[in-house]
Amino acid sequence: MSKLLESKKALITGGSRGIGRDMVLSFAKQGADVAFTYRSNKEMAEAVAKEAEQHGIKVMAIQSDASNYEAAEALIKEVAEGLGRIDILVNNAGITKDNLMLRMTEDMWDAVINVNLKSVFNLTKHVMRTMLKQRSGSIINVGSVVGVFGNAGQANYAASKAGIIGFSKSIAKEVGSRGIRCNVLAPGFIATDMTDELDEDTIKAYEASIPLKALGQPQQVSDAAVFLGSDMSTYITGQVISVCGGMNI
Ligand code: NAP
């Protein structure tokens, strides 16, 4: 059976844990050469790289802060040289620093906007030259259902994820004529370190309110990312694709 991402080259930010880790492994399984970044956990990143290499593809694990403009420029250069081209960019790196508005500090606001939203600008800005030259590319920005509906205690996070939607729709309009697509993947509640902090009662309440009656798994988000990166989605751009068990209806 042919693989969905055969001969594609992908860059995924935040690939050492959670959803990003699963995307690295799923992309590798589907035949793509994959470069991925992490912020601090080298050991974890090396373990992911080793696992991905077992699919017989090329892997690059690079420590790079997605919120840093110059680092993003250097990263794109390194990956374009290392893999030869960049067909798929997944802006996945993200953090939360939750608190109610009365207690939210300027630092909490800045950190979340920089890592979640400015990073998307940084990477998209620097990959553009490569993709324009190729006259093709798929940019997948990881948003959240919270970016559409809001969430008490997450004004910074929701604003960053809502910003990603406006950004992605604009990019889709700007470069669609050059064969470059840009979509948002909006997960609901997915079982990762990010949601691990929630207590059991909160998780049970969420599960009860989700039409599919369960938290999502990283693999279910990766499946949608594989689709958006593949030639199965060549007429899809500027869209927000929710992977949330129906929690947004
Ligand atoms: P996670 O388990 O906390 O993993 C975050 C990943 O991002 C790690 O690999 C981390 O690297 C990396 N990272 C953090 N800051 C970075 C930076 N400045 N530069 C580069 N990499 C950085 O998170 P997750 O749950 O998989 O979430 C992934 C994405 O999905 C995020 O954008 C998140 O907002 C979104 N999302 C998640 C959920 C959910 O329920 N989990 C729901 C909706 C949306 P280190 O390990 O080195 O720190």
- For the secondary structure, the number of strands is 7
- Give the distinct bound molecules: NADP nicotinamide-adenine-dinucleotide phosphate
The poorly predicted ranges are none
Helical segment tally?
9
The helicity comes to 40-55%
Report the oligomer. Answer: single chain
Structural class: alpha/beta
Rg for CA atoms: 17 Å
Strand content: 5-15%
Which strand order does the major sheet show?
3-2-1-4-5-6-7
SSE string, helix = H, strand = E? EHEHEHEHEHHEHHHE
What would the principal axes of the Cα set say about the shape? globular
Largest sheet: 7 strands, parallel
What is the rounded distance between the termini? 36 Å
Round the mean pLDDT to the nearest integer and report it: 97
Give an account of the 3D structure.
The protein is α/β, with parallel strands linked by helices. The protein has helices at 18-29, 42-53, 69-83, 106-134, 146-149, 155-175, 193-196, 200-209, 218-229, and strands at residues 9-12, 33-38, 59-63, 88-91, 137-142, 180-187, 240-243. α1 (18-29) crosses α9, α3 (69-83) runs parallel beside α4 and α4 (106-134) runs parallel beside α6. The chain starts with 8 loop residues before the first strand and ends in a 6-residue tail after the last strand. NADP nicotinamide-adenine-dinucleotide phosphate is lined by residues 13-20, 37-41, 44, 65-67, 92-95, 115, 142, 144, 187, 189-190, 192-195. NADP nicotinamide-adenine-dinucleotide phosphate (NAP) binds next to α1, β2 and α7.
